[in-house]
């Protein structure tokens, strides 16, 4: 039986090619995601190991939750004290800053998205994890007019040694143009993963980023040969002042790498979700393929039963074919996954995450996961068709036509409805109940509802297929009637093929509704709450220099400028944003204080937005606990304000309080109020203030709304691109179903041709069958997408997404696109059917 199964598989290579391709795509996405994730992890682990000393001495709370430096520093005298400790080879003080952008020759910012823009003092101190940055060209910087750049940044910006380099800084001078005197790199290989780095001499760095004080952000202590990191840490720790700690370089590197990898872990999760979608859609294709292949081989399998093969042997022979198919698809998919990982590295490089200096990491777990996923999915998908083969009675070999026994449509309807109800319950729980990991509940509910619809689709599709037959008969006569009857002949097959397309379109329709609703909510929010005349912000969502507000306040026609600042930290035990404004800004920002008084809003107090207060049961007089660099603080609530998106944080304190908490001073947004009659020319004058600062923009209400919509469009576009994989597999499913259907109906096709059906009419008949499948999938997918999209947006109404908008035009495009898919999917099967020799087709058994 094993030889029979293998010969059968080899004898039907072309028939199984498309099914194999479905597994290849699914496994490729899994393998590519895992390889890219492992490469990302190894790259950052290696990077942080090369950016710490043997022991790192740092202030407690020296970095913010976003990884940037706080305002807490270490006095330079500590360097001299530690230099005399036994076992210490050298001690180096470090200055570093975040948000110092390099501007290229085309006046565009290098990087900015994702990886940070770093600056600091140049140091040749050895790194704990091997050789760190070292000069590969030029000399070290000396004086305020010299700078060193990392080699990747210099190359991307187009600068060589001797060029003037424009730098934008959030502190000190907002625009500098030092001369590039050196280029740094990793001689042993490696990169900054897309981050940019500008280095000055120590005195200049202190002037620029530490207000000229002789202090450091942290200190590296390098041990003598034979002194371990733990021994070195134990030696220096007793000499440190209060509020300063010493950690080993390994611990500091692991901490930094773990925090960052946890923050970007969503990338791997995101990619694996779409790999799962591709595999689910591919499973429909495999089920369909094996069902049709088993049906076509029914006489052969019945003869094997008549010759003494047991039910288990016949079933096992089909599963052997599935195993070989899964193994082959997994092998090809694994190879394609490596190519996909390379493509992902290039794509993420366009967004600033440059991993070109890190070779791809190919772990054994990737191989095991790829084969496990590919083989298991294929075997499970083939199980039901394989099980049906065991029901073939030996006596059926004596008959001319052999029909495989199948479960009743009534049973499938009951199972499908049960899955739909269960899925709706799980989805509702995830959306509205307070449960752990609600995203998993939502995902499980969506999957159950999609599978339930697919299970019940043969019954749900019958009215549509009957209507399609009637419409086809009216529009296309006998050819249309034949196409309609062929679709009705096996509703299970038609519905199963349509279900694969349904899943992709359901998710696409959901995202279309989410994207359109999010943009409509943004427009409404801005229209209802926009204050002032212009908004000034960083194009990357970060900070900018405080001098800009001062300059804009002096512009002719400006009445006042309101500063807004925020920092991400822990507020009441949850990750959230802590905002800051001047107390005088409460009225111009139209903050509606419904409890308490704005007059009590002074340094050391907070205002809390209504939704946050309700969620944490806070009232006037209660204290809010906030984790800040200077140590956890408890500030009293002096006012509850109605939710206002103009203020970016749920909890707001004063500018002075935020600075005293240990955060460096920089603005995140400015609201500019114009004098009456200032006119449109004011915007031009404001633009002149930031003309040399491409990271800072001035926007009126319309431009601000457009800027807020842009990330939503980009996100939805990425989702559509990834869902395209599932749609490609679904289209392959239609092609595969039609191709196998033509093979199955070879004699029928020959008879139709013999009684006068032309080649053109035959091609039209098969095309109409394909269109029925596509439109059925599109309608089911659109309806499911409407349900999912509206339910999801309804659940988010308390998150500021109050408007539910259904993009009717976009959904209509999906349906029309399905018509095109149906026509294109039929090209190959229709061409093959039209080329069949009539006499040979009639003689086919």
UniProtKB/TrEMBL annotation:
Q: Which UniProt keywords apply?
A: Cell membrane, Membrane, Transmembrane, Transmembrane helix
Is the Membrane keyword given for this protein?
A: yes
Q: Which InterPro entries match?
A: ABC3_permease_C (IPR003838), MacB_PCD (IPR025857), Macrolide_Exporter_MacB (IPR050250)
List each copy of the MacB-like periplasmic core domain by range: 17-237, 494-688
Which membrane topology term applies here? Multi-pass membrane protein
What residue ranges carry the coiled-coil annotation?
A: none
Q: ABC3 transporter permease C-terminal domain location, by residue?
A: 273-393, 721-837
Location of the protein in the cell: Cell membrane
**Membrane-spanning regions, if any?**
270-295, 318-348, 368-386, 413-433, 439-461, 495-515, 715-743, 771-796, 808-830
Any Pfam family hit: MacB_PCD
Q: Name the family.
A: Belongs to the ABC-4 integral membrane protein family.
Q: What is this protein called?
A: FtsX-like permease family protein
Lineage, broadest ranks: Bacteria, Bacillati, Actinomycetota, Actinomycetes, Propionibacteriales
């Amino acid at each position: 039986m094993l030889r029979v199964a293998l010969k059968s598989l080899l004898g039907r290579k072309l028939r199984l090619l498309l099914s194999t391709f479905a597994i290849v795509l699914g496994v490729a996405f899994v393998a590519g995601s895992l390889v890219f994730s492992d490469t990302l992890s190894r790259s950052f682990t290696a990077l942080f190991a090369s950016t710490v000393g043997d022991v790192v001495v740092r202030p407690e709370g020296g970095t913010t939750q976003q990884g940037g430096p706080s305002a807490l520093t270490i006095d330079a005298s500590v360097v001299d004290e530690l230099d005399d400790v036994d076992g210490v080879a050298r001690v180096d003080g470090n200055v570093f800053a975040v948000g110092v952008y390099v501007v290229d020759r085309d006046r565009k910012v290098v990087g900015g998205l994702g990886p940070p823009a770093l600056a600091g003092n140049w140091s040749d101190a050895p790194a704990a994890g091997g050789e760190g940055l070292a000069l590969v060209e030029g000399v070290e910087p000396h004086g305020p007019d010299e700078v060193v750049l990392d080699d990747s940044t210099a190359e991307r910006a187009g600068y060589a040694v001797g060029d003037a380099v424009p730098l934008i800084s959030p502190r000190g001078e907002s625009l500098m143009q030092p001369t590039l005197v050196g280029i740094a790199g990793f001689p042993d290989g490696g990169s900054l993963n897309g981050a940019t780095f500008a280095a000055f001499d120590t005195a200049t760095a202190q002037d620029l980023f530490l207000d000229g004080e002789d202090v450091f952000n942290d200190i590296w202590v390098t041990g003598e040969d034979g002194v371990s990191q733990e021994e070195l840490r134990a030696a220096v720790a007793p000499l440190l002042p209060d509020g300063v700690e010493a950690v080993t370089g390994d611990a500091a590197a692991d901490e930094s790498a773990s925090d960052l990898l946890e923050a970007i872990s969503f990338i791997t999760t995101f990619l694996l979700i779409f790999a799962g979608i591709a595999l689910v859609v591919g499973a429909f294709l495999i089920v369909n393929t094996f069902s049709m292949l088993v049906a076509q081989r029914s006489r052969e399998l019945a003869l094997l039963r008549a010759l003494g093969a047991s039910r288990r042997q016949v079933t096992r022979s089909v599963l052997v074919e599935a195993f070989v198919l899964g193994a082959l698809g997994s092998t090809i998919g694994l190879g394609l996954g490596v190519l996909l990982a390379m493509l992902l590295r290039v794509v993420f490089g366009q967004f600033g995450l440059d991993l070109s200096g890190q070779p791809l990491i190919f772990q054994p777990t990737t191989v095991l996961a790829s084969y496990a996923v590919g083989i298991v999915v294929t075997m499970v998908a083939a199980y039901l068709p394989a099980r049906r083969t065991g029901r073939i009675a030996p006596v059926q070999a004596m008959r001319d036509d052999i029909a495989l026994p199948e479960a009743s449509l009534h049973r499938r309807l009951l199972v499908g409805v049960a899955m739909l109800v269960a899925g709706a319950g799980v989805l509702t729980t995830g959306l509205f109940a307070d449960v752990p990991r609600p995203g998993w509940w939502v995902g499980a509910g969506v999957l159950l509802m999609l599978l339930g619809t697919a299970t019940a689709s043969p019954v749900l599709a019958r009215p549509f297929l009957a209507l399609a037959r009637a419409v086809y008969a009216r529009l296309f006569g006998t050819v249309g009637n034949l196409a309609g009857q062929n679709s009705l002949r096996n509703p299970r097959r038609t519905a199963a093929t349509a279900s694969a397309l349904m899943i992709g379109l359901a998710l696409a329709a959901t995202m279309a509704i989410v994207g359109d609703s999010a943009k409509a909510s943004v427009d409404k929010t801005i229209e209802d709450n926009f204050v002032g005349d212009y908004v000034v912000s960083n194009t990357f969502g970060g900070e900018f220099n405080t001098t800009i507000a001062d300059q804009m306040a002096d512009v002719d026609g400006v009445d006042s400028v309101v500063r807004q600042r925020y920092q991400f930290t822990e507020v009441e035990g949850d990750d959230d944003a802590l905002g800051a404004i001047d107390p005088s800004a409460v009225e111009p920002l139209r903050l509606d204080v419904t409890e308490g008084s704005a007059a009590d809003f002074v340094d050391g107090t907070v205002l809390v937005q209504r939704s946050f207060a309700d969620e944490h049961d806070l009232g006037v007089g209660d204290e809010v606990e906030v984790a800040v660099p200077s140590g956890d603080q408890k500030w009293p609530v002096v006012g509850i304000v109605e939710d206002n998106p103009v203020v970016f944080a749920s909890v707001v304190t004063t500018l002075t309080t935020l600075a005293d908490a240990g955060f460096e001073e920089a603005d995140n947004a400015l609201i500019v109020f114009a004098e009456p009659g200032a006119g449109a020319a004011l915007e031009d004058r404001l633009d002149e203030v930031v003309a040399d600062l491409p990271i800072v923009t001035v926007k009126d209400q319309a431009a601000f709304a457009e800027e807020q919509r842009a990330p939503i469009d980009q996100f939805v576009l990425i989702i559509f691109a990834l869902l395209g994989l599932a749609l490609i597999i679904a289209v392959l499913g239609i092609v595969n179903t039609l191709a196998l259907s033509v093979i199955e109906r070879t004699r029928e096709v020959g008879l139709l041709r013999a009684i006068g059906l032309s080649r053109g009419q035959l091609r039209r008949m098969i095309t109409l069958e394909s269109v029925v499948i596509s439109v059925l999938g599109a309608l089911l997918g659109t309806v499911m997408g409407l349900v999912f999209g509206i339910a999801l947006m309804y659940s988010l109404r308390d998150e500021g997404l109050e408007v539910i908008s259904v993009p009717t035009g976009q959904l209509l495009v999906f349906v029309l696109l399905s018509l095109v898919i149906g026509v294109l999917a039929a090209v190959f099967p229709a061409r093959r059917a039209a080329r069949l020799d009539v006499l040979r087709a009639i003689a086919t058994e």
